[in-house]
Records
---
Amino acid sequence: MSVLTRDEAQTRAQILDVERYTIALDLTTGEETFDSATVIRFTARAAGDTFVEVKPATLRSISLDGQPLDPDLLDGNRYPLTKITAGPHELRVDAAMHYSRTGEGMHRFTDPTDGETYVYTQLFMEDVQRVFAAFDQPDLKSVFAIDVTAPEGWTVLGNGVAEHTGEGRWTIAATPLVSTYLVAVAAGPWHSVTTEHAGLPFGIHCRRSLAPYLDADADEILDITRALYDRYHEKFDEPYPFDSYDQAFVPEFNAGAMENPGLVTFRDEFVYRSAVTDTERQTRAMVIAHEMAHMWFGDLVTLAWWDDIWLNESFAEYMGYQTLTEAALPRALNSVPAGETPFPDTWVDFGVARKGWGYDADQRPSTHPVAPDPDAVPDTASALLNFDGISYAKGASALRQLVAWLGEKDFLAGINTHFARHRFANATLADFIDNLASATDRDVHAWAEQWLRTTGIDTLTAEISSPEPTAGPTVPNGNGQSWALTVTRDGSRPHRVTVGAYDHALGTQGAPGHLALRDRFDLDVPGDGTPTIRPGRRPALVVLNDGDLTYAKVRLDTTSWDTVLTSLSGIPDALTRAVVWNTARDMVRDAQLPPATYLATARTHLPHETDLALVQGVLSFAAGQVVDRYTIPEDLPAARATLTDLCRDLIRRTEDGSQPGLRLIAVRHFIDAATQPDTLRSWLDEGTVHGGPELDPELRWRILTRLAVLGATDETTIAAALEADPSATGREGAARCRAALPTAQAKAAAWDALFTDDTLSNYLFTATAQGFWQPGQEELTDDYVARFYPDAVALAARRGPAIAEAAGRYAFPAYAVDPTSLGTGIRALEDPALTPALRRKLVDQLDDLRRALAVRSAVALAD
């Protein structure tokens, strides 16, 4: 299949205006294919040659202006349209199209719980061609009118209001001008909850087997949706540009969500079957906010080419977190008074859960600017690689720094100018910066060059000293004392940061030393080199980037770091604690802080942490990286004991039932860290954790997975558990458990399912891969390390980008942390058959492996 190049897209956009697509989809033709009939009305500005894209199972017929064309001329995914005359044309394409099991194109899923079938589209980048013929590029916007024939009893959803006209036929209201990749259809026997807001129909939808769980959260989801909708209308001058707002929670979805105008699709794990924490509810709310922001930035105004994908994702990421923080909900949620947001500072979660994603991506060989040069994104295959921590987390961090520097008033004025100038059209980075510049006297173009066109992370280091005595009298209110701060910058970007100065204060009972904020002030970095003089004695702790308004590594002075080790949990503000925990995380990754010290700090301070996002973020890094990858083998028993003891401390702290979210986090991590099966078996047999919570499906499968890893369960037990929970997540849990069993037979069967069978859906593939590689099972899996590379290359070529990405992420031998594994991987990168999606994942994984080896080497040398 040919990928579309930027040059080809620019040439075609100069030739064509596409006015309207009329599409008829028939979903009643069988389980393998559906029928797709497309009429495209377009105008050629001048005579010439072009092509239309389609990926059919069978191309039945194609005609131009009533004249039949030869279907056999289809070349891969391109049908050539030669000698097009200037003027209006009508292209008709009739085809049978394959359903997908990989989340690409028209995905088909049969729910094992009740046997009901659902289909939905995911047409991002190039996958519209799997559903209907199209001139598939973002700057050829058009009107889309779609009719769908579906089985009786199904409901059809689309970008506009869908009307059932009888006998399974549905007509979806024509869209305004939108890009091909934003067209959406979802069909099946959906369970729906509908309402109306601001004169528009709103709805949330899921498969029927999840109906009780959606109903339990429907008020919360709809209240959040309405509050965000109202808040965006306070920010944006342009009204919501579509005729309805549906949110469909769909099965086996590859992304978190997709911003299809009028029909946002979400992975249906956001319909919670099991207990979740308030932080997880906040994440769902943030995703709702993120996708709604796209209705303006991405849908109303769309990038012209994929080099500007950050314009979509960075903006939605920033606006999602910021607007969720601002939106006041009309209904009390989790005991929060009505009229107050239950998410008072979503930026804590961003700092600890998302920002590290950007930092990690920006330090790999695959890093790229937030706004890459157009020549760096020559085609759609390369564009797909930029959906990463840089386009999302780093870009959002850069926008947050821009707002701090520019001021929110001028920022929003520039955004509203952008919407007004480019509504229902396309725009570039240059357009965006020009529109921001029109609202301020600041040099936004220079800012963009420094922040958006460069790679890497700056490091800001604090140095504290006592100034010369002559400086004392110039500092008021210092009682004759003063201290001086000098910030050095390793990097090239300007930063506006807040500095926090903290003193020791009276500690709370049972907690490490409490700290009190003495002073908080803004600082521009770099300055003129003159130290900043502040009154009073030297603080116990000085934190750069207090408030986390910039994107940079932070290094504390020695005295401040000593204070952190003893008093981190005593820092009064959660966002400041997030900055400090990120500093510790960066230092571990840079081999500047021993993994054992990080674990000891977590053991000391997490039992006193009140922010669930911080607890979850620190525990996840401690378990998934510090213990499983960075700790040398001889230190592993002590590291695992520390992690287990920490989880046990948190469980004990929550015995009174007052902090169910914290207890749930602790129980999950205790299960994952367990080295002996007895406690887990007891919980499973009794159906409850001692002291609560009762085991829900998620906890049951988590325990079974860990017992499988430990060799303390068998196929009979797994089969019985699947019979008790025959849901989609039950099937995934069983696949994960079977692949985790420590037997040669189990590993061979899992490997065959992953790399030979080709029948696993995207979710079952991921679950099997997650189970296969386990720390402590190296004797069983060592022989598979070298096999991974050729098998993954062949798999990616057969099954496409989604499975290639899953293979690189989940089936990679991440726990084989040794030079031989690294060398094998580096040699594999020379394989010319590597697809771009798999190559990018391998480059990233091998760099992480190289970093893990460096950390281990530093520990061994220190010992």
---
Amino acid sequence: MKKIIFFTLLLSSLWTHAQKKTLQAQPISQNISVDGKLDEQAWDTAAIASDFLMFEPDNGKPIPEARKTEIKVLYNNDAIYIGAMMYDDEPTKILKEISQRDNFGTADIFGVFINGFNDGQQNFEFFVSAADVQGDCIMTDAIGEDYSWDAIWLSKASLTDKGWIVEMKIPYAALRFSEENKQTWGINFFREIKRERKKYTWSLIDTKIGTFTQQNGDLTGIENIKPPTRLFFMPYASYYLNAADGQKTYGTMKGGMDIKYGINDAFTLDAILIPDFGQAKYDDQILNLGPFEQQFNENRAFFTEGTDLFNKGNMFYSRRIGGTPSVEPDLNDNEEMIESPQSVNLINALKVSGRTKKGLGVGILNAVTEKTFGTIKDTITGETRREIVEPLTNYNVLVLDQRFRKNSSVSFINTNVTRNGHYRDSNVAGLAWDLNTKANTYNLYGNAKFSTINDTEDKRGFYSTITFAETSGNYRYSVGSDFVTKDFDPNDLGINFYKNYYNFYGNVNYRILNPTKLFNTFRINYNMYSEHNKDSGKVQEANLNANLNLTTVKNNYYGMGITIFPVEMYDYYEPRTDNRYVIIPRKFDFWGSISTNYNYKFALDLNPTLSVTDETGRAAYGVDIGPRYRFNDKLLLTYTFSFLRKNNNKGYIDSYDNDDNENTPETIVFANRNVITYANTLAGKYAINSAMTLNLSVRQYWSSAENKNILELEPDGSLLPYTEYTENKNSSFYSWNADLSYSWWFAPGSQLSALYRNNASNFERIIDKDFKNNVTGLLTNDALKHIFSISVKYFIDYNAVRNKARKRA
């Protein structure tokens, strides 16, 4: 009898977990005050969503009764309301660090995931922490969570002697849904108990299945609501005060506006008129000795918010827009460039994006940058002239992305750059696919791209990749291959470093899906990679890699790995001349990583690396050390020290033609050098409350490359001593950046921000090995540039203005 009862309960449990959960929303006519109390009568009679199940680490385990969670949903003609009661039998232990929006720090979190079309394609996610901090993002299985998306909504969190409460009001303007009279939305609720590092959802998110957005429950009962007119204006005004040595202090005023308009229930137009990016985070510049440009993160909100569609096929690198000028003017004898702008001003930009109920996503982005000039000086006569370094330029991106079966998509992408006049134009088109089986157990991913460059010499190139993978279960694998032609060039609006090769790669991995007595997570990977030059067939890179990543039951992370390069490789990029290569010796790379539990006031990140070659004395080693200390729920400081040393590094420094003999190949000069890098970064946050924060960000960087002896690259890829070259090609770059900022969200979507920034940098051929001199040399009035700025932006909702006008009438 006991066995029968046991199996009955087991089957009942499995049946409960397998069924799609449903919650009924309750219509209301009374006003709801978003105060974190849930004391209006409507909350008392609303249906309850409960019985949460663990998402991580012990997937599927029911939430303890002492931590039960109860959710209720109300709605009216303007918004949906969420009321959440998170019970906790130890309320004094609830973590509640105050942080900036979208960055919850060490705090408990509640969230709601909404899909107005209930198509398993895209969730709009809204979070509130126990410290009353908001966060929101768009979630897709292909991209993950995109926190650059921001919506305007209200929330309030409050602590009680039974746990904590969250109350939300999410206007329909922040969501997307159809115009049907009866709505059924996809919905899920999320809770993280931070001190235990345990995450729960109302509708089970089964980690054995390679999808997140398709495992929502249903929200029913919403009837006779209409998508509102989504029209928002965000005017801004900024003032900048600039000061530097030898320059008169001056101030500038800027003003402009961002506009968001909902074209229909699916598509949104975003536009910026006279943009201002002066308060964007500074770039972490480095001493770049390699053959490729340094790639920077995008810090401008317009180009980060809601751009998941534009990232299809990896063809769009937004830093091209307003980046470094593309034209190098011809210089006559005795002329030099005395003024060369480092960036180009953006005149305006707009994007249209959205997805229909049938799964067709459309993205259009257009931006225009202004004509930009540099100044050239004749060193004999002293006369100057201005020449174009970037003509008036139009950038355009078009994406059509058709999703089907809720978990697969095929995309067409086109990027186009048109420069006014007789300058380089480019066009790149691509087809990308991401196909999954119905059960989300296997994936076929790939793309094919074609580039056309119209310049003094027209070029056409091709790139393709394809990968097949098993995406479910404890054991998983993937195999793939790339093929790239010599003339493939997407770099006017994309970024691509490697070309003229084909490769093969594979991965086999094992992971645990539920915790053990020792580990919360455990994953071991084995990777194989082989790359060959397309013309010669020579091995450009070949390696075998094994790595282990785990989290203990105390939520400390440990990782380690080894990469073996078993054969000599032929580097076709470092010589920076077509059809030339340098031989890279066999080597071993080792790395380790430790990250202790951030729940504790003190935590530490440690990342050592070591690289050893079979060439005597040629090796590299380094370490990143990052202690962090949370003084209280308001104050947090983090510090990182980074060190890297490369001994007997071989690298390109110069090249020149042999004019006396056309049959002699170009002379390519390398150096045997020691490269040393130090970097110190300090970040601090003091939260006055959930709407006001003070932030500090400081970075000191110094890297030098000291040439020990000069080498000549031979046609067979070897390096031989070259005593004829006498120029000084040592390199030393040091920089300092410091930002102190204040941010106040004084109304929904409205922000006042103030920033003081000082920075300095210097590149020289003389290496001063006194570390102190390299730091203090930049911290003087002669070196530092100072900027103080204050900016105010105000959010205006057309619907709110219209409603107020009607009431007054």
---
Amino acid sequence: MLKNQKLLEQLTLKEKALLMAGQGEWQTRAIKGKVKSIFLSDGPFGLRKQSGAGDHLGLNGSEPATCFPSSATLANSWDQEVGREVGRALGKEAQRLKVDQVLGPALNVKRNPRGGRSFEYYSEDPYLAGKMAAGMIQGLQENGTIATPKHLAVNSQETRRMASNSVVDERALREIYLTNFEIAVKEGQPKSIMSSYNEINGTYANEAKWLLTDTLRKDWGFAGYVVTDWGGDNDHVAGIKAGSNLAMPGLGVNAAEEVVKAVESGELSEAVLDQRVDELLTVILHAGQKPADDGFSWEKQHAVARDAAKKSLVLLKNQDQVLPLAAGTKVALVGDFAKTPRYQGAGSSLINSHDLESLLDTAKDYPIDLVGYARGCLRQGEIKSDLLEEAKALADKCDVYVANVGLDESAESEGLDRTNLAIPPCQAKLLEELAATGKPVVVVLSGGAAIELPWENKVSAILHEYLGGEAGPSAVWEVLTGKYNPSGRLAESYPLTEADIPFDNEFPEIKRNAYYKESIFVGYRYYETAGVKVKYPFGYGLSYTTFAYSNLTIDDQGVSLDVSNTGKVAGRETVQLYIGKKDSPLIRAKRELKGWTQVDLDAGETKRVAIPFDEYAFRYFDPNLGSWQEEKGRYQIMLGQNVDEILLTGEYDLKRGIVPEVKETSSYQKYREGKLLMVTDRDFEEIYGAKLPENRPAGKRELEWNDPLLEMANAKSWLGRAAAKWLARKIQESLDKSKPDLNFLFNYNMPFRAMTKMLGDTISRSMAEDILLIVNGHFWRGSGRLIRDYFQNNRKVKNDKDVQQ
């Protein structure tokens, strides 16, 4: 019997069908006298509850809220408790604003740092991403708020995000792109999860039964409900059959009619529909049952944001120990960001911050002598000689420059991918000019993902704040002045140049099929295996003190070791456990993160710490057996301060498991040795295990139902080509102003079928097909049908009297 059997028996078929889609932009469907509606809100790192008309792109105003550090920032803390605290604070604001469900955290693996939403994602490593997300989910759900980890799965680029097919081999799929969600689901126990827009090996994620039912529910024990990304419902009935419960935003009565017809024709079993409704009702009926927290205060929320930012700051360079700044140091503050901070991303996560700080405003609260501020260069990147000279003139007054530079808003946004890894040229020029004065330059770096640092050897120190949220500036001053000893560690690798990223020339894929040719070799897994030098390795971060490791012991339970603070000040060390197996016949990375622990030590203090072997320590996915296996034999156990700086090593014999059988080929050998520069499509096809789907050549052609609007550049109709050119021009104009227009970006990447998903009953499927007909060169026939179908749709919606509001 289903959990809500009695309630289900009271619902009509149409009412059950209506529950499978939302009611407007942010609410689930209410059935009068039977089922309440719950309110959903964006919020990976701050709530974006809109006060007026709702839109998922953040174009309309939203209620003031605390802006916490981005997920990419929080990951650098390597501290699950930091995530829990931010989650708890988010839950409090959700209660205050009567939000039942928060759409976050986002935890997709950073396949390439140029991914447009890298600032929303935790790491290039699935183990770290899963653990950090689990902490956030646990904190968020403590007061009954519903967490929604996203986007399941293999969602790696913004270009064509609603019409892209991620072509990925089975091992990479399971080990890299699903392990993060597996950990988050098993440890965090979220009540909801969001499916991604993209296809996975030819099937839309929201229609993949192997993913939403077999893997998510049966293998991982997920007991919540699945919601689509906004407009991500491709085939409504197919989604329900696969395990999807709620299509958002509201799809209107046309969608419900589609479900009813599918049940009546036998295409969809009513028992399956009942199962989906029951899963959804189980969460909805228990939402909002805990009493509101009377202890809410903006000051406490801001303090949580500051503490999270402080523990996530990463000290990348500290030449001649220029940091921390001594009391009374004469500081010249430079950079547009220092006055108008770059503290959050753009898109659906955009927060109306309640209490935004800046480095300039908060400098007075710390023991330095601020001798002046200069902008240095324009935010948009244009070099102005007068601004440069103004900044250089401060050299006569200061002991040190503190320059806040990084990626501006046009570089990172939902809806577009980064064109390169560089900061704006004028900012690089500014740093060079400041360094030429002879005064030490301390760089405070802002941005949500890896950045090229060709100017690194010209500055004395680099403190990376990532996107620190509203309280990031005071957190930065706490580290710069030594009030807090930096403890952050990078959650991603920083390559020397963009050219070092495997298959970077193929990212983002502008055609439908994106080949994940690097397989399991994402981030440090590639750099370490292939012996490619990086600027800063995964797990890297400096401290104002030093640490030593000793006395390693390894047993069946895990490892233990002594960690000593060998410096002069207290500090926090992050001890990282990596495991490798150099004699394996399998394709394996040289080493993989399999655990970590953090320890706080006073100067001269030593503590013994332990890191257990868990269920993820030795497993790999065997595509031939279709299951997780462990390889019997000897493993290398490595303890280090980062993936490249291993301080203690040992070996462990795993007596259980199998001896895998592999077929050695030249393609297989290339992957085993990490020689990705030699990998061809044919090599990947062998690892993939099937013929690769082909991308269509460019040129005029018939556009299809799931082609994005950007493909109108290839349309037969001049109207379609003109529309595509106009959209592209409007997008570029917004980027030139460092204000990405999310409306144009969304539409540019939106497929024709999404018109019926984003606009409720305003555009029926027939109307969208008529528009496609016009674009394909049949103007008069398409226009005539569009007029006819427009009036038919209006009459149908108007006459549908039994819709429950």
